[in-house]
Amino acid sequence: GAGNGAGGQWGWGDEIAPYFDTTKINVVNRALGGTTNRTFYRDLWQRVLAMLKPGDFVIMQFGTNGGPINETVLNSRARSRGTIKGVGDETEAITNIITKQFEIVHSFGWYEKQMIEEARGKGATPMVCSLIPRNSWRDDKVVRSSGDAVGGWAGQMAEAEHAPFLDINEIIARQYDELGREKVDALFVAGAGPHTSLAGAQTNAFCVIAALKGLKENPLAKYLSEKADGVPPADLRQPAPAIPVPDNAQPQ
User: Fold this and answer.
1) What is the pTM assigned to this prediction?
2) Rounded distance, CA 218 to CA 86, Å?
């Protein structure tokens, strides 16, 4: 969503601020549902970059909004927001059917790398997340995005660029496995695909803080609030700890 709860949709970026001491650090959410790292980099990244100052932190998470690199038919469902799969240096030149502009399209990994490098160029610390899991199940387990999928590409770029990596896809999926389908259904907006409700956003924000606390070196540790004290650090070598499900968790 757009951070206003329209359609019952909320993202974890809207719910993460309470875990930080805002007398020490300012928390700003510039995420926008429906973008890919290609369209975010092209249309919105410069706004973020202009805000950055030395000492800032940028936590980035890009998901599966893909589809065609360029649509063949212009209609109300056309997006033309896909990237080249993977982390390579391949490119595709197009005239975008929506913007009518010439565009060089790169791989998912290329856009991640640009934002990591440009954030560092402003003196900020970039941190990379894998995407949140969908409410999609196989053999009573939530389907993960890893390896050659988007979550894996994010991890590969974080490793290649020596940026902290928060594998929230796996961390959240483990929590969903423990909660079971019925409880997890209440964390998503019914009929809205992968989009989380307010309770889902709060649950995922909890997991993001767990991921931060599970880093060998957490550069944000000194900025966490008392609320974060109740969040156990994520350790993917251990079974998932129980997490509180918000009281407002109910089918939307």
Assistant:
1) 0.91
2) 28
